[in-house]
Design brief:
- With 201 residues, this protein is mainly α.
- It is built from 7 helices and 2 strands; from the N terminus they run αααββαααα.
- The chain folds into 2 domains: 77 residues, Orthogonal Bundle (Arc Repressor Mutant, subunit A); 96 residues.
- The chain has a two-stranded antiparallel sheet with strand order 1-2.
- β1 and β2 form a beta hairpin.
- α1 packs across α4 and α6 runs antiparallel to α7.
- The N and C termini lie far apart (78 Å).
- The relative contact order is 0.09.
Length: 201
């Protein structure tokens, strides 16, 4: 953005929508699907954001006629939208916010029996393995489809690849931590049972 021009105040979802649309024009529903990789959102969040961006002149839209299906609105980034996005990239980001209901449960898990907490972590592991398998398949297909583009830092497919890899690494770390917690809970339960057992048994 040129010197002296005031930067627009946009939230992170605005920039994420711009980033998706800069790859190719899409509908709001398509944006929701694309953002599942980095930030799960729903249409009730995306459409008001698109309306805001359009009002500010950062995107434009047109209705696409469809045969046998309802028409849909396709959004495209304007020159001003591209400038706003690239001007924001490299600025100081807001501190990351982690919202995970599972961790909130863990915070107060001392109110439950250890065996119940173990079961809770085992369910978590099943979820993590399922999520990892889905992302690993997605990454493999992406790399197979764009073998050269994923090596080019000037191509958006390169960054989609590294973000998918980061999600997988994060899930792998969560798996290691969850297994370690299960091991500690089982050890603590065994020691407690041993301490309560009458001598001579």
């Amino acid at each position: 953005m040129t010197d002296g021009k005031k930067r627009l105040k946009l939230n992170t979802l605005c920039y994420q929508c711009l980033g998706v649309l800069l790859r190719e024009p899409q509908s709001g529903y398509d944006i929701v699907k694309q953002l599942q990789v980095i930030r799960p959102v729903n249409t009730s969040q995306v459409y008001p954001t698109l309306m805001r961006l359009e009002k500010q002149g950062l995107v434009q839209s047109e209705e696409l006629q469809q045969t046998g299906r309802p028409n849909k609105r396709i959004y495209t980034v304007t020159g001003a939208g591209r400038e706003a996005l690239t001007d924001w990239i490299g600025t100081e980001p807001e501190p990351p916010v982690l919202r995970d209901d599972f961790l909130t449960m863990v915070y107060s898990a001392w109110t439950k029996e250890p065996a119940e907490v173990v079961a809770m972590f085992e369910r978590r592991l099943r979820y993590l393995h399922t999520a990892m398998e889905r992302l690993e398949n997605l990454l493999a297909r992406h790399r197979a489809r764009f073998p050269e583009a994923v090596k080019n830092p000037r191509d958006w497919r390169f960054y989609r690849s590294i973000l998918l890899a980061r999600r997988i690494a994060s899930l792998q770390e969560d798996v290691i931590w969850s297994r370690g917690v299960i091991h500690m809970l089982e050890d603590a339960t065994a020691q407690s049972a041993s301490a309560r057992a009458p001598e001579g048994e």
